[in-house]
What we know:
Elements: H1 2-17, H2 40-47, H3 51-58, H4 67-76, H5 81-91, H6 111-119, E1 125-128, E2 134-137, H7 139-144, H8 158-164, H9 166-171, H10 175-192, H11 197-209, H12 211-218, E3 227-234, E4 238-249, E5 252-261, H13 267-279
Antiparallel strand pairs: 1-2, 1-5, 3-4, 4-5
Helix pairs in contact: 2-3, 2-4, 4-5, 8-10, 11-12
Amino acid sequence: MADVNRELSDFLRRARSSFDPSRAGLPADGRVRRVPGLRREEVALLAGVSTDYYTRLEQGRRITPSSAVLDAIARALHLDETARLYLGQLVGSSATRGPRGSSTAVQRVRPGLYQLLDGIGNCPALILGRRTDVLAANHLARALLTDFERLRPAERNYARWVFLDAEARNLFLNWDEQARAVVENLRLDFGNYPDDKAAQELINDLKKRSPEFRQWWNEHRVNQRTYGSKHFRHPIAGDISVDYETLTLPGDPEQTLFIYTAPRGSASRDALDLLSSWTGPSAPEHPTEKGSSHERQ
C-alpha cells in the first residue's frame, strides 16, 4: 500500500507542477510563483475540495476519494481519459478497475489465436500480455521485429527488447518516440498491478540498465495508444512505414492483439511482401506445443 501511495503522491505533484496556471482561469492574487505549475490550494479550489483534503491526498495518505472527487481533480488538472483511469487505479478505486485475474497467473494464448496469427500472415501481428510480455507472434512480425520465440522466456518482453537490444534502437527510425510510448503504456499497466513482483523486477532492471527508461519512468506520464504508426529501417527490406491497430481479445482483456498494415500498392506494402517471401511462414513453434508456457524463469 505504501508503494501505491508514493506513486499517487508523485503523479499528482508532477501533474500539478506541469500545469500552466494561465489556463486555469484563476484571478491574479499578486503572489510571486516560486515553483512552476499550480499551488495545492489552487487545485483544491478548482476541484471544489478543501486544501487540507487535497494536501492529504497528494501526500499519499490513506484516504479513498469518491469517483466524483477524482473526476473533479482530473478536470482541475486537465487530465485526459487515460490519466484519469490511472489516477483511479492509484487510489484503488473499485469504480475504475475491471475484473482482473491474479498478477502471478501464467498467461497462455488459445490455440485458435495462434491460427488467427498464422491466418493473417501477410501482416505482422503479435499478442502482448501483462507488462508487455510477448505471448505470440506470426512469422512476419518475427521477421520485421525480432524472433522473440528464440529468446529465453524471461526475455520475451517488448519493453526489454526496445530498451536493451541495440538492434531495436537501429530498427526504429523514431526510437525515442516509440520507446516513450512503451514507458507510458507500461506505467499504466503497472497501475493495475502495483504489487506484481515480475513487473517490479522488470522496471527495476530497466531503470538500472537504461538511462532513458529511468528518466522517462520518473516523469510519471501515462498513455494508452490503441492505434498509430511506426517507421522502420529494416536491414533487409529497407524503410517500412506501417499503421497499427490494437484489439483487446475477448475472454482475456489482458491480452492485446497488435496488427501492422501498409496500404496496398505502397512501397512499404511491397517491402513487407518481399520480407514475407524471404522468410516464409514456417511451422509454428507454439510454446504450448513445446511443452512449456510463457513463464518467468
